[in-house]
Fold this sequence. Notes:
- It is a single chain.
- The chain has 127 residues and is an alpha+beta fold.
- It has one domain: NTF2-like, domain 1 (Nuclear Transport Factor 2, Chain: A, Roll).
- It is 44% helix and 32% strand.
- It is globular and about 45 Å long.
- It starts with a helix and ends with a strand.
Amino acid sequence: MKIAAAWVAVFSVAALAGCGALDLRDDDVVVKEKAQARWDALLKGDVKGAYQYLSPGSRAVMTPEAYAGSIRQGFWKSAKVDSVACKSKESCEVRATIEYEFQGRRTKTPLSETWIREGSEWWYLQR
């Protein structure tokens, strides 16, 4: 009886862990959340956190140090992900509006990003 109860407990924990790992939301919702989180990290100066959103291929050719060197910290003043359009199950285009300061004036401009799926995860494709 104790062995059966132990197996039930093991399977219950495994099932709950598996459910937490599965994201059943639509791709555009997941990508929008991740894209905004990446921008939020950049706005906070968390370059290491933003680096974690890069695709595995991007990370393979760009070290964290090189990525940090390519980021102009403090440049962006705000960023809002406006929309996501998934062209396929493997690729989404993100439209965002970023605000930055140039010559003492704040400027807003549209920005387009590509996010790709590798395995079961979505990643920012650094160009």
